[in-house]
Amino acid sequence: MRSYRWAILAVLAGLAAGLASAAVSVKLELIIFGFNIMYIVSPLLAGFMESYVAGRKYGASTGALSAILVFFAVNIYGWLFPAEPIQWNVFTVGGLLMAFQAAFPTTVNFILAAAITYALGLLGKGLGDRLSGGDGTVALEYGPHGVGIGIAAGEAVGDPGDLDGLRRLAVERMLSDAESMGGRGVVDIEVKVTVIGGELVAVTATGTAIE
């Protein structure tokens, strides 16, 4: 069983390294564009030191607890007891984001992944709506009315630039499917356009085959 003593010592080592680097940064006034580098360097150094000691002595991760503690410590100092007020600019905001990333890497990476996935989803939906002219479904009617005998379907996949041709091909395949059922026409046709990976579209035509 692992000794939790090394886990505690790893956190303390990270905390000491982070706070020491913050003290040096303040003492030497290591400021870039009105932003002290301790906001970025100190949490990173704390997390590195803690992870190094934990990996060598404890044999498992301790969650970079010292990086989180140092993150809060330097920000409390910087915002409540500043020797020089922090200047708001693009570098300040970027530095704070990097410091937050250093202290909470898993949370930030999850948020970024979720945001990117959501953005790609919106992009795909927008492309699909633009290609189909609405919600991705185009209602049609084709053939004489009669007794429904089943659902016929046809699909075509290809380049978005050939959307009209893909629609025709999907409808032709749907009609062939209806004919194979013994149908003489199709009604209540729907043609749906789906974007695949941002580079291809799949056009699916479905309808009720009738006798």
From TrEMBL:
Keyword Membrane: yes
Transferase recorded as keyword: no
InterPro entries, per the entry: UPF0145_dom_sf, UPF0145_YbjQ-like
SUPFAM superfamilies linked to this entry: YbjQ-like
Keywords: Membrane, Transmembrane, Transmembrane helix
Annotated transmembrane regions: 32-52, 64-82, 102-123
Pfam families (UniProt xref): YbjQ_1
Protein name per its UniProtKB record: Putative heavy-metal-binding protein
Taxonomic classification: Archaea, Methanobacteriati, Methanobacteriota, Methanomada group, Methanobacteria
